[in-house]
Design goal:
3-stranded antiparallel β-sheet; binds pyridoxal-5'-phosphate; Aspartate Aminotransferase, domain 1; alpha/beta; Aspartate Aminotransferase, domain 2
Length: 404
C-alpha cells in the first residue's frame, strides 16, 4: 500500500472525493442553488469561431504554443483591463487554465509550508483546499456589507507582530460581488487595504471572476487599477462571463513576476485552440451583446431570489448583491446552516451551508465576526426563475428545525 508514502500535503486528503452535483448528474426534480454553473442558455454558440480556429489557425491551434499564452489574447486582455483603469501590456498577462489555476501558481510562487495567508471569513470555498495543500496557517478577517474589514486586518497584523510571528505571505480577496458574501468593497476601503499591504509588504491576490457581471451601482476601480507599486496579483477568468468549460483565465502582475510564474507553470501552456476561439469571440461584435445578455439574465434571477427569500424565509436577512452569482443569507439564531442544508437536500433543493466557506469553522469566533453557523449561500446563476420560486418555497417548508 502506498498510503504511508504520501507527501505531507496529501496526508489529510479523503480517499473519497465528495459527490458533487454536476447538471447532468442531478436527480430528476432537484433544484440546484448550490453551484456557480453558468445558465445553459447563456453558453455562447462558438461553433463558427471553433471551425475557424481549426482551419484558418490550424498550425497555431494544434501546435505547442508560447507558455505565457497567445500574444493577441494577452494584448486583448491588457486592453480590457486598461479600459478598466489599469496600465498593463501583454507582458503583464499570463494565460492560465482558470482563476483557480492562477491562484495555485501564485501560491507556488509565494508560499512555503507553515506560511500564513489572510483570507476573509467567509471566503471562496475552493480557495481553502488550494491554500491548505500548501500547508498554510489561515488568518481569517471578517467582513461587513462593504467587504473585508481593513481595521481588523490592521489589528491582526499588529498582534502577529507583537507575538513575534512573521507577516502573512499574501492577502486573498474577492473585492467584487464576493463569493459567498456578495459584498463589493468601496474604493476607500480598497485604498486602505492597499495602503496596509504596501506598508507591511504583503502581496494582495485579487480574484475577480464576477467583476464584469455587474447589474447596477457605481463602477469601483479594481485593486489592480489602484495598485501603484506592483503589489497586486490580479486573477481573471472567462468562466463566469463566457463559459466555465473553456478553462481559460489569466494572471495580471508585474512582468518579472509573470516571468517567474511562467517557469512554475508546468502544463506545457494552456490550450492554444481554446485561446484562439476565445480571442476571436472576444474581439467580435458578438461579445458585447453576450455580456449584456449575461447581466440581464442574472439580474432577473437575482431579483427573483431576493424577493423569494424575503417573502418565504421570515427572519432571514441578506444584503442585495449588485452583481455576481450568489445571495448570502443570514439565518435567525435558531436555524443552523448545516442542519438547514441537510433538510433542504432531503426536500430536493441543493444549497450550501455557510460553514463550508470558513477556513477554520470549528474555532471560537469573536463576537464581531460572522459565525459559520447561521448562514447559507444560495446561487441563482443556474436555476430558472420558476425553479427559484419553487425552490425557495421548498426551503420555507424545512426552514425551522423539526421539533424533537
Ligand atoms: C471567487 C472565485 N474564484 C474563482 C472561481 C473559478 O474560477 P475558474 O473557473 O476560472 O477557475 C470562482 C467560481 O466559482 C469563484 O467564485
Amino acid at each position: 500500500m502506498i498510503e504511508n508514502r504520501f507527501a505531507r500535503r496529501a496526508a489529510a486528503l479523503s480517499p473519497n472525493f465528495p459527490a458533487s452535483h454536476f447538471p447532468g448528474e442531478l436527480d430528476e426534480g432537484v433544484i440546484p442553488f448550490d453551484s456557480g454553473f453558468a445558465a445553459p442558455q447563456l453558453l455562447p454558440d462558438l461553433t463558427g469561431f471553433a471551425d475557424d480556429a481549426l482551419t484558418t489557425w490550424r498550425e497555431e491551434t494544434l501546435q505547442y504554443s508560447p507558455p505565457q499564452g497567445q500574444p493577441e489574447l494577452r494584448g486583448w486582455l491588457a486592453g480590457m483591463m486598461n479600459a478598466d483603469g489599469c496600465a498593463l501590456s501583454a507582458e503583464n498577462i499570463l494565460i492560465v487554465n482558470g482563476a483557480k489555476h492562477g491562484l495555485e501558481l501564485v501560491c507556488r510562487l509565494l508560499i512555503d509550508e507553515g506560511d500564513a495567508v489572510v483570507v476573509t471569513a467567509p471566503t471562496y470555498f475552493t480557495a481553502i483546499p488550494i491554500f491548505r495543500s500548501f500547508g498554510v496557517e489561515f488568518v481569517e478577517i471578517g467582513q461587513d456589507a462593504d467587504g473585508l474589514l481593513v481595521d481588523d486586518l490592521e489589528r491582526a497584523l499588529a498582534e502577529r507582530r507583537a507575538e513575534g510571528k512573521p507577516a502573512p505571505k499574501l492577502i486573498y480577496n474577492v473585492a467584487d460581488f464576493h463569493n459567498p458574501s456578495g459584498a463589493t468593497m468601496p474604493e476607500d476601503r480598497r485604498r486602505k487595504l492597499l495602503e496596509i499591504a504596501v506598508r507591511e509588504g504583503i502581496p494582495v491576490v485579487e480574484d475577480t471572476p464576477y467583476r464584469r457581471v455587474r447589474f447596477e451601482g457605481d463602477h469601483v476601480p479594481s485593486l489592480k487599477a489602484l495598485d501603484t507599486t506592483g503589489i497586486v496579483f490580479h486573477l481573471g477568468t472567462f468562466s463566469k462571463l463566457v463559459a466555465p468549460g473553456l478553462r481559460i483565465g489569466w494572471v495580471a502582475a508585474e512582468a518579472p513576476l509573470i516571468a517567474r510564474l511562467i517557469q512554475l507553470k508546468s502544463d506545457g501552456g494552456s490550450s492554444p485552440l481554446v485561446q484562439r476561439i476565445i480571442y476571436e469571440f472576444a474581439r467580435s461584435g458578438a461579445f458585447p451583446a453576450h455580456v449584456e445578455r449575461v447581466r440581464a439574465l442574472y439580474r432577473e434571477r437575482r431579483d427573483a431570489m431576493v424577493a423569494a427569500v424575503r417573502r418565504e424565509l421570515p427572519g432571514a436577512t441578506l444584503h442585495v448583491p449588485e452583481g455576481g452569482y450568489y445571495v448570502w443569507v443570514t439565518l435567525p439564531s435558531h436555524v443552523d446552516g448545516d442542519g438547514f442544508a441537510a433538510r433542504a437536500a432531503a426536500a430536493g433543493v441543493n444549497i450550501i451551508a455557510g460553514s463550508k466557506f470558513f477556513a477554520t469553522p470549528g474555532r471560537e469566533w469573536p463576537a464581531n465576526m460572522s459565525s459559520p453557523r447561521n448562514h447559507v449561500r444560495l446561487s441563482y446563476s443556474y436555476a430558472t426563475v420558476a425553479q427559484i420560486e419553487e425552490g425557495v418555497k421548498r426551503l420555507a417548508a424545512v426552514y425551522a428545525p423539526v421539533e424533537a
